[in-house]
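Collaborator request, handled under Task 6.
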Amino acid sequence: PMTLPVAHEPMLLLAVTEFVANSAAFTYFTAGALRRNISSNMLPRQFPLQLRTKSMEVFSSQLQERYPDHPMELHLWAHRQPLLSFHPDALHGSLFSSAEAFVVLPNATRVPAFLLDIDANVTGKPTITRNRVGGTVRLTGLVPNPELARGLLVPQVKRLETLLKFGLWLFGVPQANSKCCPVLSP
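C-alpha cells returned to the collaborator:
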C-alpha cells in the first residue's frame, strides 16, 4: 500500500507501481513490440565493428571463409517478458533477449549464422533538476548464453560479450539516456 502526500499547493504527482510497469512490459512483449532488426547500414560509421563477415571474423573465422566480406543483419527480440522492480533509489530491470545473426547474400537471401541469448540487467534513476524530471540508465550486467541451433556457426562468446558491453556502453546507454530527457518544465 502507498500513501500519497497531501498537497498544500498546486503540484503534479505521478505514482507508478510495479504492477503497472510490469503490465506495460507484458503488453509490449505480447504484442511483439520488443523486436528490432539491425542492418549493416544502420550502425554508426565510428562503431569499431561493422556488420560484415570480414569484421565478424574475430568471433567466427568460418563466417569469413564461407561468405567472404558479405553484409550481415542482426535480429533482436525479447524471448521473455522484461521484469521491473522499484526500489527507493532506482528502478531495476531484467531484460531477456535473443540475437540471431544472418549473412545477406547478393540475391538478398539471409543465411543464419548464429543465435545468442543475452540477458541484461539495467538500473534507471530518476532525476529532478530545476523543475525538470529526467533520468539516467546504467547497464549493471550482461550475460550472453551461446546456443547451437539448426547447425549455426557459434562465435567465440567471450569476445562477443566484450564487444556487446562496449557497444551498449558507447551507443545503447547514451541513446537510452537521451530518451530520458526532461519531461516537465515550467
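The cover message to the collaborator said: "The two ends are 31 Å apart (CA to CA). The domain at 18-172 is CATH 3.15.20.10 (Bactericidal permeability-increasing protein; domain 2). Please let us know whether this matches your experimental observations."
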